[in-house]
Amino acid sequence: MIKLFKVEIFSFLFVCIISISGFSKNYTYGELKRIRAGYEQRREDGFELLRGKELKRAKVIPPIFSDGSNFSRQYSYSLLDYAFKCFWLGEDISGANAALKENADYYIGYPRAYSDKDSFYWAADELCKMLELFGTQGSLRPGLIQKDVEERIFLMMWQYSQNQSKVSKAEYKISKTWYVDESENHHVQRFYAAWHFAKYLKEHPRYKELKYDDGYTASEHYAAWNAYIKEWLRERGRKGLFIEMANDSYGLETLKGVYNFYDFGDEEMKRLSQNLLDLYWASWAQEQIAGVRGGAKSRVYPSQASQGDSPFRKMAWYYLAIHEKTAPYNNLFTLVTSAYRMPLIVMDIALNRSQYGSYEVVQRRLGQAEEGFFSPPDYHVKQDKGLLRYSYCTPEFIAGSFMCESLPYEQWVMISSQNRWAGVVFQGEKDARIYPFCRTGKNSRAYNQFWGVQKKGAMIFQRLDTVAGRGAYDMRFWFSKSGLYHRIERGGWVFVESSGAYAAVCCVGTLYRWEEQKNGYWMILENDFAPLIVEVGEKKDFENYASFQNSILANEYGIENDVVSYQSLKGDILSLPLNYRSLPTINGNEVDLTPKMGMDSPFVQTVYDSGVIWIRSGNRKMKIDFNK
Description:
Layout: H1 12-21, H2 29-37, H3 39-48, H4 73-89, H5 93-107, H6 111-115, H7 124-134, H8 147-164, E1 179-181, H9 184-201, H10 218-238, H11 250-264, H12 267-286, E2 288-289, E3 292-293, H13 302-305, H14 311-320, H15 332-336, H16 344-352, E4 359-366, E5 378-380, E6 386-393, E7 397-403, H17 414-417, E8 423-426, E9 433-440, E10 450-455, E11 458-463, E12 472-480, E13 485-490, E14 493-497, E15 501-507, E16 512-516, E17 520-525, E18 532-538, H18 545-554, E19 557-560, E20 563-567, E21 573-577, E22 585-586, E23 589-590, E24 597-600, E25 604-607, E26 612-617, E27 620-625
Antiparallel strand pairs: 1-5, 2-3, 4-6, 4-24, 6-7, 7-8, 8-9, 9-12, 10-11, 11-18, 12-17, 13-14, 14-15, 15-18, 16-17, 19-20, 20-21, 21-22, 22-23, 24-25, 25-26, 26-27
Helix pairs in contact: 3-14, 4-5, 4-7, 5-8, 8-9, 9-10, 9-11, 10-12, 11-12, 12-16
């Protein structure tokens, strides 16, 4: 080895202080209740930001894929967003109806658009929410949507459903809902639209007796999708949430339908949806700093990898009264207007997280593919094998990565292996972060790019070879300009500091060069298969910056018998085989990729596939049971 709203008893000032300063310390349950009681007022404040805004139509552009229709997603969003805010605020009702009619008229008689996965159903949740609230039978302000406009919408729904909804796709006894169409979020958007459209069509005198192309009526489709969705909800609770893990963009497209299942499904669906939303937000709460989610992610495009803002951070303003005021847009209309509220115990985890010190989060996530079913349009996901998602959370940073076998990319479903992200997010500015990444090709996609090992604040990463990876080039490491300061290169290490932490990065056995970008710096490895060692620690544990540097330089690391090893500041020995022939080890033990616990942290615990989850915070606990 070498050197190895309308609110009663609510304090406006209290909310303002929270909104400006972010998190304070030791929120009591009384304070949490007052924050939650202020949700409706914050929602009204968010909508008020849209008052008087004129309709600005987004353009329909040529197809983004050769077999698609003209790309109309943003066009539909612009029309529906305008209609939604007008109905909610009670302004320009005629213009809102005209926008809804224009949207329906665009798709009616355009079957190619119905089959295009990138345009039509993305705003279906928003459209259905408006019908539920403002349609002729609406629950909030019935009749704002004109009858003739509503009929055009129903015709559009029929034309889409007649061809696109298939009862055979609602099979779950064999698939257990782990046969996925196109991608995870696309899959959900498709069956969500099929379900909610059928909910309307089965009651409509013109459509309820008609048969879809597969020979079944709307009522039969609704019954099939109702059963399927309930099983899908149970399975995500039993087996660790989503394959597109912790995704800040596609995650919204997956969850938006769940919000409408909660608001408009039957009692069983409502309960199961609430369970899933509670579990999702509890998982989010324990792994975020000021609303910025840390931990390993998948399907993170290069343009998104360096950014901390997200729809979920925006929702934190509504749920937790933190960050800047934000207006709803696109699918956030569905979330913001939902009756769902974050449980007090989850709010406690989110707002008082820094008071609970440092802790580990370990999660099993599915991702391996049945043979021959790793790519779109048909993914078959193995129900017992995937990867281990690990995060180390402190008040000043969250370091997160994934640990897995080095497998050929064909053994992973591409919705798991695409653009995986690991690294560190820091307290302070929302974009403050460091992370490894591989340059991608022209389509911004790479698969199975790298692997790694982590224990607490220490991590090792290495690019996978061309047998395992696909579309990945040039291993590199990102240092944000935002929130990071005083970069120093010393003894083969690169050091930086944030407001409350120090970090060190070492390229083992290779040179590197710097490439400056608008928002940060890439450290680009000369040998991009060389391993990267990363360690991050809280400032409070060191006398000063120099003391941290000296501690790192005194640590041991090196390569022996094709294995890179590093002894961390906490005394753990991490090893990663550079020949990809075995699993990473921590303190001499191979990483267990299939632990008994599906989720394990001080806040969220569940035995894998049990369906019973315990949410804990302080001396309080909440049981989530997907088996009832």
